[in-house]
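Lecture 7, part B: from sequences to assemblies.

Below are the input chains for today's worked example.
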Amino acid sequence: MTQRRPRLPAGDPGGAPPPGVPPAADTEVPGDVTAAVERVLSEAALLWSRADQGLEPAVSPIQLRAVEAVARFGRLTLGGLAEELGAIPSSASRLCDRLEAAGLVVRESAQADRREIIVRLSDQGERLQAELTRRRRAVVGEVLAQMSPASRGRLIDALTEFGLACERSEPGLPGALGSRSA
Amino acid sequence: MTQRRPRLPAGDPGGAPPPGVPPAADTEVPGDVTAAVERVLSEAALLWSRADQGLEPAVSPIQLRAVEAVARFGRLTLGGLAEELGAIPSSASRLCDRLEAAGLVVRESAQADRREIIVRLSDQGERLQAELTRRRRAVVGEVLAQMSPASRGRLIDALTEFGLACERSEPGLPGALGSRSA
DNA sequence: TATTGTTATACTCTATAACTATA
DNA sequence: TATAGTTATAGAGTATAACAATA
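Predicted structure of the full complex, as structure tokens:
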């Protein structure tokens, strides 16, 4: 986690009555097991974010995410981008204003339906995306390099199983952005 | 984003010769291995974020993170909270204004040094934190429930090894927030 | 009329710089 | 003087609502 600071008071994290969103399957899986997974997941998220630090030019996390979405599809309509980001069209439009101003994406109208706006990466955007991918591979590789080949093998097997379990429990949810819609 | 960088580019995003953040250990670890880890990491991050959806009241991701930080330490000075969030004091102060207005935290001056402001969770903040923890346990538990006990055992072992490797490669970095410091 | 996107407005989140209060 | 925090100001990021253009 983030806590490089020693003192932990930690309020009792588990004293509330289950309101009602996640089903809570704690009865089936030992609590210490989920706790261990939680801890590593947090650590992994932190590790993952490290790759974004110091990118040139300095792009905000949100803009980076939009660039990734566009890169993933090659080209997206503005509405498609909004959907992919879990945001609404107007937010995506404003975001594109800034991305375009930063020279990372290009907007052009579609020939088929002139109401649609196609968003794609500019050359600079492509370079940014490539650099980001390179860095992510690097940070992950750095950690894996600390492990023995045998450990890496076991990790891959376990992670693959975990990934399958994730897909089994969560269909295909969008990547909610700043949705404060409670 | 507030970008200390006034705006644009000027710098190429990355065609980029390794700027100097990740050393790149690709030569030592097979590319497909890192790719597999990357994929699961992305999936895990998505899974992790699911627990934050629909919380009552609707708290922004940033505010939630601040609540978690305060909960983790029990009580923090405003400066300590800022540090923990990877933000500067003024940002943390404004964030606390909103958190206090939302009834999630309480600010009080310290007796020892009256310049310091101690931030701690209100009862409502404690309840929110408890609920968040419960939900996280639930979403992780939901995925783990899809796996056999044997698979879970292997996962825990592999994850523990991975966690150790993470700690070995990354000492203790702060949880950079909106730091777009390139 | 329905769909796609943009603009107007308002709020959160963040940073820099200037300021107050305490040590 | 140095430290802890706040306030002033400005720009990014987001949503709701009203609007324009195209189908």
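Note for the exam: Residues 123-144 of chain B form the longest helix (22 residues). Keep this in mind when comparing with the next example.
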